[in-house]
Amino acid sequence: MITYSIESVTEDFKMNSSGALIINRTLNYALVPSYSFTVKAQDSGGKSDTTSIQINVKDPDNWNPYFLHNLYYAFIPEEQVGFSPTIQPEAIKALPGDPGIDTTLTYSISSVTPEKYRSNFEIDSIGGNLSVVTAIDREEMDSSIISVNIKVDQVTDGRTATAQVRVEVEDVNEAPQFPPEVYKASVFSTDPFKTPVIVVKASDPDVGDEGRLEYSLVSGSPYFDVDASSGLVFVVSVVDLSGQAATVEVKVTDPKGLNATAKVEVEVLGGTSSNDMVTISLNRPANVVERNIPEMEKSLGKALGWTVDIIQVYSSTRGSPKSRTLAVKSLVNFIAVDKAEVVSYEQVVRKLQSESAAVTTELTIVFGEGVQFAVEERPKDPDSDNLALTISLGVIVPCVIILVVIFVLKRSGSFRRLVHFSKKAEDQAMKMDNVNQDRQSNRGQRQ
Ligand SMILES: [Ca+2]
Ligand SMILES: [Ca+2]
Ligand SMILES: [Ca+2]
């Protein structure tokens, strides 16, 4: 009969007499990864032999990997690309649950909330470094927080762990912007102080900034100025620029000092004086004519072959009491422009007479059948007649005082128009609202 025994004694194994090797207690790879010992077989006569046994303990890896923190924090500035934020409380790191296993961990992003920011983030699969690959616009976000859910995979057996990075997108002040085009406008050299030239309008990406943008001129000018809040560029005095082109540079500044500039090219039409202004009368009320100024300019322009710019529309009851005896009538002051040159009074009157039929046909399209026009007598030139000026001052002054005149930016182009409106203050306020709307819409007309 043969009996078996372990020669080198270990408490972890035992062998029974029939030769079965038995695990005596739980093996721990971390403590003893392998055993080697000798076993002996012996017969009843005392003869024996030995052999060596090598036992390797397997590490079963029954632990998931884990992140050192369940929740990480990151702060990123908006509008930045290729940015790797500093992660708090420390850099993202995961470890295998079983330290004895040499396994590869790979990091990935499992989901992002809100989902639309999924493509904005990337994580380095080996190092776990989180980066922003597409800029995030803070102004487009409902909340400044984005949750990036990350995952680590243990390549060998697919065991995983998850964690979250709470990303806070920080607002950065951005500069205001003008549209890229150059603003173009025209004024007459005789235009008085405060004549509107054009409205410049910048935008600012930052919430709340837009309403607090301030406009100013890049350098002071004796010719033009700009209203700080509305962006309305207006004439100071352009009489010295007659026949020239001027460039006005307007700066817009946001509440934190970032700015942008825009150029306004202003053509100052020279040689214009009241001498070039032609007055015609129409048998239509002034308010009807006012409403049809663009159409009337177009139709007159078509009949005369020039660009017509209506300067003023008023009721014929102004001035001479004699005209009050007439039926409804309005007077229209205009100039004709041919290739940026103002056409002389005489030329315009001659053409109005020679093209009378064509003018009437065109005006009929605008004002309907029965419309009639007549060329009004040329007003006296005050400069050439000082005596007349002195005598007529008593008449002129009251007329000037009761006239409330405002300027309207022409919808079809950059000339501005002077329209006569009601004397009443509330009417004026209402009309100024309209002017402001016109100014706004004028922005879309830039060349
Ligand atoms: Ca932004
Ligand atoms: Ca911003
Ligand atoms: Ca800003």
From TrEMBL:
Under the heading InterPro entries, the entry gives:
Cadherin, Cadherin-like_dom, Cadherin-like_sf
Indicate the principal place this protein occupies in or around the cell. membrane
Q: Where is the Cadherin domain?
A: 2-67, 68-178, 179-287
**Cellular localisation:** Membrane
GO annotations of cellular component type: catenin complex
Q: Where are the transmembrane segments?
A: 387-409
Annotated GO molecular function terms are: beta-catenin binding; cadherin binding; calcium ion binding
Under the heading SMART domains, the entry gives:
CA
Q: Does the keyword Transmembrane helix apply?
A: yes
Q: Does the keyword Calcium apply?
A: yes
The processes (GO biological process) annotated in the record are:
cell migration; homophilic cell adhesion via plasma membrane adhesion molecules
PROSITE patterns per the record?
A: CADHERIN_2
Which domain of life does this protein belong to?
Eukaryota
Keyword set, alphabetical order:
Calcium, Membrane, Receptor, Repeat, Transmembrane, Transmembrane helix
What is the name attached to this protein's record? Cadherin EGF LAG seven-pass G-type receptor 2-like
Species source reads: Scomber scombrus (Atlantic mackerel)
